[in-house]
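Subject line: Sequence and fold of a protein, written as structure tokens
Body of memo: The sequence and its backbone structure tokens, given next.
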Amino acid sequence: MTSTRAKKRRLSVYLEPHLWKGLRTQAARRSMSDSLLAEAAIAAWLDPEAAGGDPRASLEAAIKRLDRRQARIERDLSISVETLALFIRLWFTSMPGLPDSVAAAARAQGAERYDRFVETLGRRLAGDRRFRTDLELEPSDAAGAVTAKD
């Protein structure tokens, strides 16, 4: 007896232990083989409508995932801004005032340093280099990571 249906292809997949356990548990609950459940899950992922899923539910689930990601991004940004604000406050309160005799020179030097800072920041934001990549460098490389040529 020949089948008009194309023969299924074999796929070997390596799963994390918790995913393997979840697959086995769900397959047992539904009285399905692991392979059949994995095939159904892949089909539902690739084409929810064809797999009998509700496209509206798929869209709602995707929106909820995006909403959770957005909330994490907002939380991380809030932490970063608060950290920077606290650092600046601490720095301002710990720096002593300058005597009038050197204040003008210090302001000029500060303005020059600020201009270099803004220029360096602009180059780094325009390129791919970020602080996180500097942290991943070797300790000897990271010590000289932020220089005037950056």
Observations:
- The helical segments are 17-29, 34-46, 55-94, 100-126, 131-136, 139-142.
